[in-house]
Amino acid sequence: MESVSSQERIHAASVGENKEYLTFMLGEEQYGLAIIQVKEIRGYEPVTKIANAPDFIKGVINLRGDIVPIVDLRVKFKVSEATYNEFTIVIMLNVQDRIVGIVVDSVSDVINVTEDEVHPPPEFGVAFDSRFLDGLASVDDGLVILVNIERLITSEEIGIFDSMNQQNEGSV
Amino acid sequence: MSVDMNQFHTVFFEESTEHLQTMEELLLNISTDAPDPEDLNSIFRAAHSIKGGSGIFGFDALTGLTHVMETILDKARNNELDLTTDIVDVLLATTDTLGGIVQSYQDETDIDWQQIEKGKADLEAILKDDDAPTEMPQVSSEEEDGFGFFDDDEPVATVAADNPVVEDDDGFGFFDDAPGTESIVETTPATSSEAANEEQGFGFFTEPKPAKAIPDEEAFGFFTDEPSSPKPAAKPAAKKTAKPAQAKSTATKEAGSIRVDTIKIDNVVNLVGEMVITQSILSMIGQEVEGTSGEKLNATLEELSRNIREIQEATMSMRMIHVSFVFNRFPRLVRDLAKTLNKKIDLVIEGGETEVDKSMIEKLADPLTHLVRNSLDHGIEPLEKRLAAGKPEVGTVILRAEQRGGNILISIQDDGGGLSREKILEKAITNGLDVDENMPDEAVWQLIFAPGFSTAEAVTDVSGRGVGMDVVRRNIEAIQGTIDIHSTAGQGSTFTIKLPLTLAIIDGLCVSVAGETYIIPLLNIIESLQPTPQQIKTLANDNVLWSRDAYWPLVCLHQQMCIPGEPKPLAESIIVLVEVGKKRYGIIVDQLLGKQQVVIKSLERHYRKVDGISGATILGDGKVAMIIDVDNLAKTEQLSQVG
Fold it and tell me: What is the pLDDT of residues B68-80, one digit of tens each?
């Protein structure tokens, strides 16, 4: 129930006129994600590895008592070299009532994008599949690729949400 | 501005369900010859509370039915009506109908008005039989009009009370300006206790927030002019002197517990967990401080750690509730079922006060219901058979809970015919299961947990469709439990469910492999040892360990956890011998770090299930460590080569 309503809320925000995006860097490219889904931003800290996890799932950390998985988008989309230093950033996201952390190279800004500023995403030339994109937006210093982070994180390719769906089916 | 009525609705639904449970419980135990007046009063109060609440919120379906019910109960408690088993049956059926209506309102589904009319008719039939006063239906309609409205020029305290039905309404602050009812309040003991009940129960009058909202709140719609009415309405009634004994009994019933959202408790449990971690980090820092201030600091930290441990235990105990919470539904189930099956069955409940983690209780209800139904339907033989076997006519089913060591045992025992070895084997063969005639009994009994397995001669309404026992076992395994069967032909069977004390904390052994820490539940560990070269044998390329007069298959944690690099040579490693169910094997680790009590955190909450891992925990330094799922770590095939 709760997750549905939060989804709806997010959806409502995305069709709204004005939306705030948090922009971040993956390699040379600037990306943006809906700030409404950002829980917090923190520095990268050592993770506990999980057996049988794909390489882009770095492991889990303790976020004030919650065991939260950390996904490295740089590894998943091979956009830049995955280095971990004191500048590496983890963006904690609230996605469908869960918390997931994503590793990015840096966080830059919060931008306001109105609906008519969003251009449709290109079919190619971006590391992300276009179904994970909201579109492109131009800001002062260039293009920002707007990622539909919820769709991306819940996708089968990331594979975090699979088992939950299966579980739900199983219990019905 | 609008007030969120939903929050009141939720409270109302919760309380109605509770009231219905109370009613059912009391009705089941009531003696028809000499009913305890206090019990009757309690039942009456429960019905009345539901009626009142439903009136406030406009749940008319409930109002009408409870009203008639109330009338009967009122007559019964005033000795104007003799209770019979039939009446109790009808009342019980009414509680079911009411439960259904509450559910419908809660789920916002359609209400089964036919059912309600039927229920009402049944109840009214009782009244007619008893030469009920003819004004009954009239009073009821009058009530419906009156519900939920204040009449401004009707001062609260002058609510009439000479008619027993109307009188009881004054606790609610409803006004009924029917002619002839405007006289002095005449209080019966019940009224005063009810008023107290209302005040406490509805949360409507006492909670500061809603109370504040009332004065300027139009959304409520039922106060026209007298914003402060609810209080006075309740108070005058409450002040009336009642028989002390009855007032006291109400008081004791209501004292001592408050309703807290479980999410809040879970939050506290989590926060305390965090506190424990912070505290242990503090202690580490404390060690580094030297001199007298260091000593003082450490002494204080020691004190703090003791306090925190106590807080942790206290918060954990908040999650524990009596198993009777789930047991209490069974007397009714058994009563009804025994009637349907035409058997005489005595249900004995033992150890209802045993405390079990709330999350487990909720998940126990379904499997237990299934097992109890099974015992009644298949376990206890039909009357003739029992008499022929020289058994007492009345069958006995014992539902027992007890704590034994770190486990809770819940058993369902019947003195019926026992499981039939032949029938189970026969059925297993028809179902194409892998069996042989010489299997030990326990193995045969376990067959009934296979999907689609039923040996019932006839599929009845009650059970026998063969879906079930596998679900029962799955449900129990989901809460880390196991189920065992003991059965003796002709003497009955016992199903024993073994559960961990709590799902939240386990005693674990911390081990390390290639620098990573893992937790092995202490419950599963037999012993840990450093193997001598003589103990290690090779069998089909796999190493096995000779210990305790047996060969133990070995599982390398390093490999299972997919840690890069080569594991340590076996001779330098430590082997932890574990056992779960019928599985026994050794886990190879680098070293032992020590015993620790750990709080189990779900990995599935934000991630997903991982093979061989049952959860995670947070260590003293704030890092996450995985808890090994001993049952799941090694695949059965891997281990079967060594018996």
Answer: 887 887 777 777 7
Give me chain B's average pLDDT, please: 74
Place of tokens 């971690």: B277
Domain final position from B442, B477, B500: B500
Number of domains chain B contains:
5
- Residue among B545, B556, B551, B565 at smallest CA distance from B587: B556
Chain B's closest residue to A68, CA to CA, is B606
Kindly report the nearest CA distance between residue A26 and chain B, in angstroms: 23
Interface contact B625, partner A, CB < 8 A: yes
At A123, phi and psi to the nearest 5? -75, -25
Same domain, B35 and B108: yes
Residues of A in contact with B273 (CB under 8 A): 65
- CA–CA separation, B91 and B28 (whole Å): 10
Contacts of A161 (CB under 8 A, 6+ apart): A96, A98, A153, A154, A155, B608
Per-residue 3-state assignment (H helix, E strand, C coil) for B188-231: CHHHHHHHHHHHHHCCCCCCHHHHHHCCCCCCCCCCCCCCCCHH
B563 interfaces chain A, CB cutoff of 8 Å: yes
The residue among B500, B534, B553 that closes a domain is B500
| Residue B126 clears pLDDT 50, i.e. is over it | yes
A32-41, B70-79, B259-268, B566-575: which range is least confident on average?
A: B70-79
| Residues B53 and B148 occupy one common structural domain | no
Most A CBs within 10 Å, among B607, B609, B617, B619, to test the A interface: B607
Range of A44-53, A133-142, B200-209 with top mean pLDDT: A44-53
Domain that holds residue B311: 262-322
Strands (E), B380-477: 395-404, 407-414
Band (pLDDT 50/70/90 cuts) for residue A165 is very low
ipTM over 0.85: no
Using a CB-CB cut-off of 8 Å, the residues of chain A touching B601 are 65-67
Residues B384 and B484 both lie in one domain: yes
Same domain, yes or no, for B447 and B585?
Answer: no
Chain A positions touching B610 (Cβ under 8 A) are 50-53
Q: How far is CA A23 from CA A34, A89, A99, B180, in A?
A: 9, 12, 19, 75
| Cβ-defined contact of B606 to A99 (cutoff 8 Å) | yes
Q: What is the mean pLDDT of chain A?
A: 80
Same domain? For B333 and B477 the reply is: yes
| CATH code: domain of residue B2 | 1.20.120.160
Q: How confident is the model at residue B219 (pLDDT cuts 50, 70, 90)?
A: very low
pLDDT tens track for B413-442: 988 888 888 888 888 888 777 777 778 888
B302 shares its domain with B394: no
Does B478 reach chain A within 8 Å, measured CB to CB? Answer: no
Q: Which of A3, A48, A96 to mutate to test the interface with B (most CBs of B within 10 A)?
A: A48
Taking CA–CA distances from A100, the nearest residue in chain B reads B606
Whether B560 sits inside 8 A of A51 (CB atoms) is: yes
Query: Would you list which residues of chain A are within 8 Å, Cβ to Cβ, of chain B?
Result: 46-53, 59-62, 64-69, 98-100, 159-164, 167
Q: Which of B272, B555, B606, B628 to mutate to test the interface with A (most CBs of A within 10 A)?
A: B606
DSSP H or E run through B46:
helix B37-57
Alpha carbon separation from A161 to A1, A158, B627 (Å, rounded)? 16, 8, 21
The answer on B302 and B172 residing in a single domain is: no
Mean pLDDT across the stretch B534-562?
A: 85
CA distance B148 to B160: 17
Residue percentage of chain B with pLDDT more than 90: 8
* Residues B3 and B118 both lie in one domain: yes
The catalytic site residues of B sit at: 48, 70, 374
Q: Please, which pLDDT band fits residue B3 given cuts at 50, 70 and 90?
A: low
Find the CB nearest B601 among A67, A163, A164. Answer: A67
Query: Can you give the CATH number for the domain in which B379 is found?
Result: 3.30.565.10
Q: Is the pLDDT of residue B255 over 70?
A: no
